[in-house]
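Teaching assistant here, posting this on the class forum so everyone can see the example we discussed in section. The complex has two components, and the goal was to see what a joint structure prediction looks like when all of them are supplied at once.
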Amino acid sequence: MKPHYKVNGRIWIETEDGSFLGNGRVQLLENIQELGSLNKAAQAMEMSYKQAWDLINSINDKSRKPLVITQTGGKGGGGATLTPVGEKAVKEFHAVRKKFNKFLKEQKIHI
Amino acid sequence: MKPHYKVNGRIWIETEDGSFLGNGRVQLLENIQELGSLNKAAQAMEMSYKQAWDLINSINDKSRKPLVITQTGGKGGGGATLTPVGEKAVKEFHAVRKKFNKFLKEQKIHI
C-alpha cells in the first residue's frame, strides 16, 4: 500500500537575541492569563517554577515592554498577569500558527 | 530600541508511522548521492555508521520502494546509492522547504 505523506512542522518567533515565543512559551502565557499565577501556570504544564520564571524573564527581556507582570510575595509566590502587550503577542502567534497550519495542509507530496 | 521579530521554523515529511524526511535525513541522502557510500555520508555529518544505517532503514521502511540501495561487503562497508525514488524525495523536500522559506519571510509580527 502506498503510504500517505504529510508535511508537518513547527514555528516560533525570534529576535536577534534568540527564541522569543514558541508553542511552549505561548502555552505558559495562556496559563498565566487563565490562572493569574506563575506557579499554577507552571504546574499546569508540569514545568518547574524556576523554569517558568526563566522563560518569562527571557520573554520580557526581548520585548520593549514586558509581556508578564509578576507580583512577588504572598501565599503561593504572588500573582502574575499578562499585560496588553502579552495578550497581543499571544494573538499574533496564534494568527501566524493558523496561517502555518493552512500552509501545511496545502502541501502535496508525491514520491 | 524596538526588537525585530522574525518567524522561523522547521518542517518535515511524515507518514502514519512517524517521521519520514527532515533536514537531517535529507542531508544524509544528499551526502550518499554525492559520496556513494553510507559510511562516508555519515562521517561527513559527524554521524555514526549505525545511526545512518538506522535512519536509512527508517526511510526505506516508510516507502513503497526504497530510497537508498546499499551494497554490503568490500572495503569501507560497500557502496550506497540513491534510487530514482530517493532523488525525487530529495527534490520534493527542497521544493516544500523553498515554499516554507517564502511563507516565513512573508510573516510580519507587530507586537
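For the discussion questions: The interface with chain B takes residues 1-17, 20, 62-64, 85, 88-89, 92, 96, 99-100, 103-104, 107, 109-111 of chain A (CB under 8 Å). Chain A has a mean pLDDT of 92. Think about how each of these relates to the inputs above.
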